User: Fold this.
Amino acid sequence: MKLRLRLALTAMAAVLPVVVAMAYFQQSLRDSSQEEVLEASTLAQMQVERTRCEAAPETWRPRPSERPAPPGRPPGPDDDGRPPPPPRRLEDGEAWPPRGKPPPPGASDMGEGRPPRDPGRPPRPGGGPDAFNGPPPPRAGGEDFNGPPPLGPDGRAPPRVVFFPYDTQLTSRNPRAPALTQEMREDALAGATVARRSEQDGRRVLELLVRMPWDDGPCAFVLARRVEPPGPSSFFLPPLKDWSLLVSIVVAAVVLALGPVVRRIRMLTEDVRASARSGYEQPVSVRGDDEVADLARAFQEARAEIQSRMAQQEAREQGLRDFLANTTHDVMTPLTVLQGNLSAMQQRVSRGEPVNAAEVASAMSEAHYMASLVHNLTAATRLEAGALHVQRAPVDLNDVIARVLGRHQPIARQQRISLESGVPATPVRVLGDVTLIEQAVSNVVGNGVRYGREDGHVAVVLESTRAGRFALRVIDDGPGIPDEERARILERGVRGSVARTRAPEGQGLGLHIAHHVAQVHGWTLTLSPSEYGGLEVCFSGETLATESPPETAQSS
Assistant:
């Protein structure tokens, strides 16, 4: 469903209850006004008719001339509250109609100028031959007294009002008086004006029981019964032409007012689609300072975020491509050397010649390098995946150092580098991922062995304090790292100038992984010159439990 149609339907749904409420309010005001007018006219009528009512309460009816004009009709000749002039009998020889006035339709100009009497109409008792002397007799039923009432502006006859008197006990001597309910009796005796509404034969009936200013007599209360003429029921709502016009105007106004809003939303939709087609390079236009503009700004912020994510993803993909290319080269180089050494050793063995120790050492070095490279790739993958892939459990650092030294001992022995360690007698335990911790320490020790000088030394020293902290230091007497490179050496892919000179292969992952592992575990990794002229790498952090620093340390 389109926005404009949806809002138009919403406007209709909002207007209809308002129209119904206004109709109920209008009907309530109309009913209240009718009751007030009927009560006032009843009191005014009884000021004149009290004597006649008390004289004959069984048959009392207000005089036609003294009946107040119905609401909505201007007073006529008989509605001014004064009795009409008495009819005058025509004298013999007097011409009829009066001079200067045309005769009524049907009158004859023969004879004495009088209209002929209707043969089917009996003469008035006691009246002479003239049937027009005196007022016409009242109709049966006692409700219409002046002939057919004139029609109102709406083409309907005005409502009829009938009065019924009641005494102080709310008993009426008129046999046609309506019966009163117990609730009406109680309210009337309490002094209130009681109104009752009903519907009979398609006519709305209003009955108003009014207490008179006097306190006795058979006319102490008067029930005014107002009967609406038959006609279409309003059903408590204004005519269709009234409220339908109002709803149509409101809906049209809403639709016209929402035209610019819908147009701006369409323009924003086109901008967003164009931005998506351009790979979010094209910006989204922001116009105005309202909710639609806020939506455009939100799209613009989303576009900037998507561009940032795409740039990061592209950088990662490019880095992955570079990493795979370099890794393939790094793996293929030692693998080629290893295959050559093994092939040479196989030929010597097949000829019965002794195996060259240098070839064996080179093969072992290349195999060791490939194993370290594979371990580093595994560690880098886990670290890039995030903290969810880091397993945490108690780790014994004493055992980690022993395994690392055992792994690098064969290579260090071939290069005549001495590996030493100093650890506390009481094991130092931390909470972390044992595989990542061991790889980080192995990377630092491996760098010391790989880039160390012949007859050099690499020492691993583990210390703990009473404050629940530890310090794991890897010290060597190799070439070290210049101060200007030490700040960047922990970044991924950055290798020192000496490392590039002595061993051009490699991704520079060793210290980067060690730094990343320290960050994941909440440790600190620092690089500083060692007192022996090389490099000192120190891991420091909190232990799993408070350890007492030992008096002596075990060395190997």
